[in-house]
Structure formats: C-alpha cells, structure tokens
Amino acid sequence: xxxxxxxxxxxxxxxxxxxxxxxxxxxxxxxxxxxxxxxxxxxxxxxxxxxxxxxxxxxxxxxxxxxxxxxxxxxxxxxxxxxxxxxxxxxxxxxxxxxxxxxxxxxxxxxxxxxxxxxxxxxxxxxxxxxxxxxxxxxxxxxxxxxxxxxxxxxxxxxxxxxxxxxxxxxxxxxxxxxxxxxxxxxxxxxxxxxxxxxxxxxxxxxxxxxxxxxxxxxxxxxxxxxxxxxxxxxxxxxxxxxxxxxxxxxxxxxxxxxxxxxxxxxxxxxxxxxxxxxxxxxxxxxxxxxxxxxxxxxxxxxxxxxxxxxxxxxxxxxxxxxxxxxxxxxxxxxxxxxxxxxxxxxxxxxxxxxxxxxxxxxxxxxxxxxxxxxxxxxxxxxxxxxxxxxxxxxxxxxxxxxxxxxxxxxxxxxxxxxxxxxxxxxxxxxxxxxxxxxxxxxxxxxxxxxxxxxxxxxxxxxxxxxxxxxxxxxxxxxxxxxxxxxxxxxxxxxxxxxxxxx
Length: 503
Ligand code: AHR
Fold this sequence. Notes:
Number of strands: 24
Number of domains: 2
Strand content: 25-35%
Bound molecules: alpha-L-arabinofuranose
Distance between the termini: 32 Å
C-alpha cells in the first residue's frame, strides 16, 4: 500500500475556478458536426436539425464554452460559405480533412446550437489562406448590431441581435507543416498583431488568442512562442497550447502520469511569456488557452484523412474508443489544468462529439457516453469557487518517461458560499492502492457528502452504444474522518472525487 499526505488550506487560493476551463471543441471534421450535433431527419432532431439526445449529453457533461469551427479546418475555411439560404451555399473541398463540406451548417446554425446548449462560443478566424480583412468581416457579421453591409446580412439571415462573441482565436497551429497556410513565427506574429489591432478597432474589449506552437514536440517549440509574442505581446491576451496524450509502447505507467507533461508544458510556456513581458518591462501577463487537449490514439486507424479521388461527406475520422485507463488520464489532466488556473484561464477538450470525443453517436441511432465523459462531467460540476493549493507528500511511483513521480496527484476547490470543498485525486500507481490522509488547515470538515471512483479495475474496458458503462463513477466507501483530517483509500490506477462540507 502506498501512502500520501495532502495538506490543503482554504486560505491558500490559486485563483477562482475559471469556468472556461471546462470548454470543448466543435470542428468541421469527420462526424463532429454532421451526424454529431446536427442531423436533420434523425428521430431526436429538433426543427433546426440539432440532435436532442446530443444536446442532453452536452448539458450533462457540463461544458461551458465551445471553440469553432477548427482546428485545421479553419485554415482554408470561408465563413461566408456557411451563411444565408442553405440551398444557395456552395459545396467545397475541405483541404484539411480531404472531405466534402456541404456548408449546410455554418455560423448562424452554430450560434443557434450554442444558445440551445447554453454555452459561450469561442470563434477561430482563418489566418492560413486568409487574413485581416476576412477576420474583420467575420467580426462585423457576428458582432455588429446593424446598419452595415455584413451586420445587415446577418439580420436578414434571421439573427436580429448581434452575437457578442468575446473570445477569438487568431488562426490555428500556424507552425504545423500539415497546416494549409503554414507560416514562420515572425510572419505569423505580425499577422496576428495586425489582425488583433484591426479587430480591437471594432471592440477593444475582445479577448484574443495567439497560436502557440502546435505541440510540445515541435522543433519550433519555445522559439515560436518567444518570436510570436515578441511581435504580438501588446495585442493579444492569451497564447494557445495543444497537447494530445497516448500510451507509447504500451507503457501504461507513464501514460497514467501524463499530467506531468502537461504541468511542464504549461510552466514552460508561462516562463517564456513572462520572459518576453520582462524584456518589454510590461506589467501585463499573457494567459494560457489550452484550447486543444485530450487522449488521442494518433496511431490508430482511421485517423488519417482519405486521399486521392475520394472526397466523402462527414467520413468517420479520428473516432477513438476510450478505455477506463483513458478516463483516469483525462481526470488527471483536469487536475493539472485546475492547478494552473492562475494562468490557464481557458481550455477546450478536443473534441465534443464523435471525433476523439466524450460523446459518440450512431447516424440515425443512439448517442452515448465514452469512459472519458465521467471525470470531465464530475469535475466541471463540482470544481466550484476557488482552486486551493494542495501540498503533497508521500510515496512515489516509477515511470519510464518522467522518472519518480508522486503516486497520488490531487487538486482541491472550495466554495465559500456553500461551504463545499471538492478534492480530485488520481492514483497513478499501476498496481498499488494508496492510503491518503487529507489535512485541512484552518477549516473544520463537518460532513462527507460524496466520494466516487473511476478505474482501479478493467483498465482496458471500453464503453459501447449498448453498455455497460465501465467508467460510471461508483461509490468509494472508504472516506472517513472529520474536523481537520479525512482519510480515504484509492484503488490502483484510479480517479476519485471526494466532496466535503467544511466551515
Ligand atoms: O483535434 C484534431 C486536430 O488536431 C485539430 O484540427 C488540429 O488543430 C490538431 O492538430
């Protein structure tokens, strides 16, 4: 049995829980939009063609924001193709995913869907094949009240009120060789700065995200962030991070500790951003939008887009089926994001439906929860109030990729308005349970509200449309104690949420 002692103190706050941490991502990719959120003719589709069963699951998942329309897709997208009468919209070749884009679903449909799902939109502009002018046009169409050509076009298309979209991504993964319109860091940094300045002439209060390098393994990583921010520091508010995790060579022990890599990535980008700020003697801090993250089996077929003559409509791409181990990793990644909530103020799990997603659908059939749905839903619902700094001490576990790491990782939140404290924990040791003692400094625990666990057994089990739900959180009856100390046992390779009442 491993042991861990966690100390948390409601007075040691990292930051208020950024609600935008529980964002997701809808890209025109595979079946995310078509037969995912949108499927006219489906028995559960509403008058707008939105699947009601998917909307119900999106609400249950507790998603707060959603990024749209890409992803790689945005880098060759013409937003104008997706507005106006549907029968007049052009069908186009989507160069990112080698698919046929019918444009039956576009900005106005997305905003209607966002309204029904009660989410805040995050809009990405195309800085791959397009530039500042088209970004400002999109902004005018979306956010201007009326009296100008594009705003009046939106009104004529049925949306009288402006959409008021606040958070905008200036392109996507612009250093990626796979990107249509790949750019050098300085070239992109200047374009991002110019586009940001133009967009702020329309609304100085927009929040703007510059692209970081596509992932930590890019040869451009580090110098890209520095060079982009050198050009655009004063004009943007956030820089994006993207990261996908998967086991390498079946090394499950390292995979369970993926949050180590996420921690290091966030810390590295924060340090780079702050060093650019220090050189400029700026008091401004650049925040982080971790606007693509998830488990993604990039080696698994059919992850690559079709090629050649074939340009299918909404082909099944990147449809990973997740295991219980993947759910434990997702729970661990959410712990890392929360721990950094003083700098990571927005995040998007990529993606929402069908494409590396917590929700799956069958065309014409049912919608169901993948294993990774559960830690996300519980964390999004119960991480409330402020994030608390958790001091960790105890057993370590050995990983090939990260060396010795704490066997138990954890973060906590505290909501003074309700007195509710939530502790999210992961036991990353593959074969050894952990006995955890939580010392609560400066508060009295009066009640254990709930303790649930995912994992521990059946690590390779996956959910299917017909069930059973292998990762549905099950009661963990080991939580005990009161006053200043609570104990519980974590099964090996598991994620747990403990909810307490404290005064
Ligand atoms: O989420 C899938 C793809 O991964 C996105 O389109 C791209 O931004 C990233 O490389």
